[in-house]
Design a protein that fits this description.
The complex is a heterodimer of chains A (about 270) and B (about 240). Chain A is of the alpha/beta class and about 270 residues long. In chain A, about 40% of the residues lie in helices and about 25% in strands. In chain B, helix 1 runs antiparallel to helix 2, helix 1 packs parallel to helix 3 and helix 6 runs antiparallel to helix 7. The chains are: A alpha/beta (about 270), B mainly alpha (about 240). At the A-B interface, helix 9 and helix 11 of A face helix 3 of B.
């Protein structure tokens, strides 16, 4: 499971400790579904090599915001996004931007594990192949192995790479989807409630994985589980009624949040 | 007051802890008063009662601790709730110590019974103990009201107890110097005075804990002190 040694993770993180680098910057982001406004001028910066958790009650806009980060909202009829979102220095809503390339840089893992109805190997190889990341079988084999290693799945599936991905357990399928996201070498990984369909052990494995991935990737995770947000993230953003209520260090957020609404929500109180 | 939890059983658990702390506080307060009364009146029956009350207090602390741990395990409290429960644990420990100090004072009643307590010293001790009792009572009221300002005010008042203790220390020293036969009694009384002074410190700790529970911060600045007993008798250079 421990692909990267503890020391390597620490070292990678230490380097980042002293500076706050923003991987993605959201400025005055608003989203409309037809007439209905779902997000109101959200200003949220995503820190590099950091796990940022988005929390808030159902319908608060956290998933909507997540989906603006790799333009998943483009696929929804009548959806309109205003404001500006940059990845490094690139405006991702610029007309020049190739959405397919964007989604390779900003990968996504969904709530329900959704492996392709193909072999484990093909699930991983699909992305690198369409993006032309591997020359020849040897390189592709290396990418598949490295991705499965990163997702902590290699030991469990190395003898059955050509069996169907849908035959794995729910937790393994989700890690397969993470491996698939990692295979195209993204810079940012978005996760939309990645553990809500998993049991506690499978959840713990995915959380451990998120912790390790942080050394190499920037992660934004939407979760309904407050404890999960507290366990895996370094920064937490709280949404309510389409607005960003508070964004803070996770440690601060769960001991002494600044906003009363955050307090009521995380403590499970009536507003 | 803050709104209630969606899970009413969670509210019940927190309410239970609060009630138990108030009960512990009431008992600790009573024990301290009884201990000093037993001392100045040479009342060994009352002293015995204080000693047996301490068992109840110890038991209450353990019970609060168990309940708090179960609540943490079951509810995974955060923010205010988490500070509330951690604060409860700390306050229970402080109150348990207050009880021990009361008991220790009560235990000395028998030792000083032979000579009795000189009237003047008794008054000093009573005065000191009144100050500590007020601190303890007020801090328990603040626990009920959760006023951060009042908690800070109590913290500032500990100075008076310290000053009173120092003056009692000098007085006891004078008695001992006057007549070595006073030394046994006075040494015991010195410990009693120290016990009462410590009770004041625990009340101050509780005030700081309440401040933390309410605001999430630690009160700023050094706590005011006027305890110069440690320098009494030092030879000036």
């Amino acid at each position: 499971m421990n692909m990267l040694s503890e020391a390597a993770v620490e070292k990678a993180l230490d380097k980042k400790m002293n500076e706050v680098a923003y991987k993605m910057i959201g400025k005055d982001v608003s989203v409309y579904y037809g007439e209905k406004r779902a997000l109101f001028d959200v200003n949220l910066n995503v820190r590099e090599n950091t796990v940022t958790a988005l929390i808030g009650p159902s319908g608060c806009g956290k998933s909507t915001f997540l989906r603006t980060l790799n333009r998943m909202n483009d696929t929804i009829e009548g959806c309109r996004v205003t404001g500006k979102i940059t990845l490094d220095t690139d405006d991702i809503y610029d007309k020049e931007i190739d959405v397919v390339e964007l989604r390779a840089r900003v990968g996504m893992v969904f709530q329900k594990p959704n492996p392709f109805p193909k072999s484990i190997y093909e699930n991983i190889a699909y992305g690198p192949r369409i993006h032309g990341l591997a020359r020849g079988k040897a390189e592709m084999d290396a990418i598949v192995e490295a991705s499965l290693q990163r997702a902590g799945l290699w030991a469990e599936v190395k003898d059955r790479l050509h069996e169907g991905g849908t035959g794995l357990s729910g937790g393994q399928q989700q890690r397969l989807c993470i491996a698939r996201a990692v295979a195209v070498s993204p810079e940012v990984i978005l996760m939309d409630e990645p553990c809500s369909a998993l049991d506690p052990i499978a959840t713990a494995k995915v959380e451990e994985l998120i912790h390790e991935l942080r050394a190499n990737y920037t992660i934004v995770i939407v979760t309904h589980s407050m404890q999960q947000a507290a366990r895996v993230s370094q920064r937490t953003a709280m949404f309510h009624l389409g607005q960003l209520v508070e964004e803070n260090d996770t440690d601060k957020m769960f001991t002494n949040p600044d906003d009363q609404r955050t307090q009521d929500y995380i403590m499970g109180r009536f507003g | 007051m803050v709104s209630s939890h969606i899970l009413s059983a969670y509210d019940e658990e927190l309410k239970y802890l609060r009630r138990r702390i108030s009960e512990m506080g009431g008992l600790a307060e009573q024990m301290c008063g009884d201990a000093v009364r037993a001392l100045v009146n040479s009342d060994s029956a009352l002293a015995q009662k204080v000693i047996s009350d301490d068992v109840i207090l110890d038991h209450a602390e353990r019970e609060i601790q168990d309940k708090a741990i179960v609540t943490i395990a079951k509810r995974q409290p955060v923010a205010n709730d988490l500070r509330e429960i951690i604060g409860t644990l700390r306050i229970a420990a402080d109150l348990e110590r207050v009880g021990d100090l009361g008991k220790n004072t009560a235990k000395r009643v028998i030792a000083v019974q032979g000579t009795g307590v000189p009237r003047k010293l008794a008054r000093g001790l009573e005065h000191l103990s009144d100050l500590a009792a007020v601190q303890l009572k007020d801090v328990l009221d603040v626990y009920a009201s959760r006023s951060a300002e009042k908690a800070e005010a109590i913290r500032a008042r500990d100075e008076e107890i310290d000053a009173m203790y120092t003056s009692l220390f000098r007085e006891l020293l004078t008695y001992m110097m006057e007549d070595p036969r006073n030394i046994t009694t006075c040494t015991h009384l010195l410990f009693c005075a120290k016990n009462i002074e410590r009770i004041g410190d625990h009340a101050t700790n509780i005030a700081e804990t309440i401040y933390y529970m309410t605001t999430g911060a630690v009160p700023e600045g050094e706590r005011p002190k006027d305890d110069t007993a440690n320098t009494v008798g030092a030879i000036a250079e």
